[in-house]
Amino acid sequence: MTQCNEVSDPITGSKSGAWSCDDNSIFCGAIGDIPEFDSKKTTWTCDHNVHPYGDATKKIFQDTTCRTTCPSFEPSTDGRLQRADIVVSSTCVADGDLSVWSSAFPEGIQDTTGTVIESASTNPTPGCGCKDLVLTGTVQEENGKVFQCETTPEVNAEGNTVIKDDNTCFLTCDSVQVWDLYCSMGQWSEAFL
To answer: For 26, phi and psi rounded to 5 degrees?
Structure first.
């Protein structure tokens, strides 16, 4: 057997034999080790509740498609309209005598570190941070207001305040906390800024 194909409506009682198959060429391996949680990275999820992470003993059937997404993924637009809801997929496919993870579709999608997502196995945990948050002008001191960040935000050449995704800030007014500002999974905690 060199390839497994899922049958959408199999004949009652039929079996493919793949569950007891020792032919490693029909399986893809894990896309990477089980990742630790990182609010600036995203993971892949797959059809049929297949978990694609693990060690060398992990076997994933052909035709299993895995997908990843992040609000901050950037397409290579080349004159096309830019979408904000990009979902990248990669499928376990037969490639001669072995199975491999296919090239990512759509192609040319960059994670937030600027790395192009090539396949599930090449990019097991794509970057999913936030674009710099640019606030018009500088944060002015006011009586009763406290705006504080872990690291002092930069002020760019235009005189605007720039907050990077690895910084967290908070705002209090008259000792009442108004909000916390942080980046998690490609989105800023306060979308109205």
So the answer is: -95, 5
